[in-house]
Model the fold of this input.
Amino acid sequence: MTFQKGFSGNPSGRPPMPQEVREAIRANGELAVRRMDQLLSDDSAWGPKGWMKPREQILLATTAQERAYGKIESVSVDHRHGGTIGLAAKPKSISEQLAWMADQLPERKAQKSIIDAEIVEMNASSS
Done:
């Protein structure tokens, strides 16, 4: 079924959310943020030998980044030697933020010079 231009298929709009539901979501949201912080701070969870699966590591890092800086318009993820993951994003300010997040991972701290060089190359080639 199609609607005429200028007429909503739901003229009443979304029904209001009950206050107790809104409070439960807010309370659980605070718990989720605390747990996310614990996971992000747990060095044993990260890297190829971490207890967290690589896909979960990427999802957690992406979620944290989106909550902190908003969604980005494009991300490039590539697999590197030794099971590490390279991240790049556009615009440049988001790339710098993702690089900072990646640098917090224990195995990435040792590779900081490589990551910095690749970001410089990426920015130079996109100019």
User: Anything to note?
Assistant: The chain has one domain: 19-126. The mean pLDDT is 76. The chain is about 55% helix and 10% strand. Residues 19-41 form the longest helix (23 residues).
